[in-house]
Design brief:
Blueprint lengths: L1 H9 L1 H19 L6 H7 L4 H15 L7 H18 L4 H25 L4 H22 L13 H8 L1 E2 L2 E2 H19 L1 H11 L1 H6 L4 H27 L11 H10 L11 H20 L4 H38 L1
Antiparallel strand pairs: 1-2
Helix pairs in contact: 2-14, 4-9, 4-10, 4-12, 4-13, 4-14, 5-6, 5-7, 5-12, 6-7, 6-12, 8-12, 9-10, 10-12, 13-14, 13-15, 14-15
């Protein structure tokens, strides 16, 4: 029994889950309405797009990469969908598929550039971020939808994507559970998942081991852009309008969630379940702060501080472990 407790206490995902429960209870003491189950379920719609894109973003960090173009892909997917569905009268289901193909192509471009050059992925995706955003703004401007309202007039059946529910469980939350299971299986139970980890630890060793490094890296970026596109569609349904700037504030909470969940920015580590828990931790933190009268600007500052502390603590812990290991080896030699 004691060993089981110690084992759970060493599990970062379990610690995160306990922190999430405490967070909800503490905010609930200040604002009791926050503890309402229905409120908790439906308020999660405000950050579902973060959870959706954070899940495959974990794969990118595991491979030692970075993708800051996700926000532009969200906006591009949204405006492409709006153009296809509203101006070209393409049925919304087919328009969604075509828009997601567009998002996947963005990921293909990112993955191709990252895997075939020695340029830092941060620099590459910074460039593609401006590229995709420029294309989205150009499409919006040519259609007269460059303003805040964007493209509107969507059917009720499309709006159900964000506002529908199965009983008391919102559709986006059901989709999150399905998505998390799929990517948890891919990362932790398949050969491709093991390749992600090995590429993140050492690309040269992975290449010498016969792993298709370029293919492995590219798939991670395609998955991430695809899910960024799905987030763009969900946001379009949520705000009832297609705009080129949708999801523009998603990068910081996404990166923070993945890093807080245990993924290393240097690659080689990351867990899907931990990422999902971290997403809810940060999402409910922002929701809770707003419910007790703290502005969203201040909550962004808190999330930024949380990211800095998480990265810094990981670096310090790694150095301490390395020092302890070296001392242990030295003592054995002596």
């Amino acid at each position: 029994m004691k060993n089981t407790i110690i084992k759970y206490c060493k599990n970062w995902g379990f610690i995160l889950f306990i922190l999430l429960i405490f967070e909800i209870l503490i905010i609930g003491l200040v604002n009791p309405t926050f503890l309402n189950i229905s409120n908790l379920l439906y308020s999660s719609n405000d950050f579902m797009h973060i959870v959706i894109v954070s899940i495959p973003f974990t794969l990118v960090l595991v491979t030692g990469g970075m993708d800051i173009s996700i926000t532009s892909v969200m906006g591009l997917t949204s405006i492409v969908f709006g153009m296809l569905h509203t101006f070209l009268n393409i049925p919304f289901f087919l328009a969604i598929i075509l828009a997601l193909i567009c998002a996947s192509l963005c990921g293909l471009i990112n993955g191709f550039l990252v895997s075939n050059t020695d340029i830092n992925p941060l620099v590459i995706t910074l460039g593609t971020m401006f590229l995709y955003r420029g294309i989205a703004i150009g499409i919006a401007g040519s259609s007269g939808a460059a303003g805040y309202n964007g493209i509107t007039g969507f059917s009720d059946s499309f709006l159900t994507l964000a506002y529908g529910s199965l009983g008391n469980i919102p559709y986006p939350l059901i989709f999150i559970i399905f998505l998390a299971i799929i990517f948890a299986i891919i990362l932790h139970k398949t050969r491709l998942g093991r390749q992600y980890y090995l590429v993140g630890v050492n690309k040269d060793v992975a290449s010498y081991s016969g792993i298709a490094v370029k293919f492995t890296i590219t798939t991670a970026y395609i998955f991430t852009s695809l899910c960024a596109g799905i987030s763009g569609i969900i946001l379009t349904s949520y705000f009832t309008s297609a705009r080129s700037d949708l999801g523009s504030d998603a990068l910081l909470p996404t990166l923070t969630s993945v890093v807080l969940g245990g993924a290393s920015i240097n690659g080689g580590s990351g867990f899907i379940v931990n990422t999902v828990i971290a997403c809810f931790f940060i999402g409910y933190l922002k929701q809770g702060l707003m419910s007790i009268g703290i502005s969203s600007d201040v909550s962004q500052i808190i999330v930024g501080i949380l990211l800095i502390l998480t990265v810094t603590s990981k670096i310090i812990i790694s150095k301490i472990r390395l020092t302890m290991l070296n001392n242990k080896i030295l003592n054995k030699v002596i």
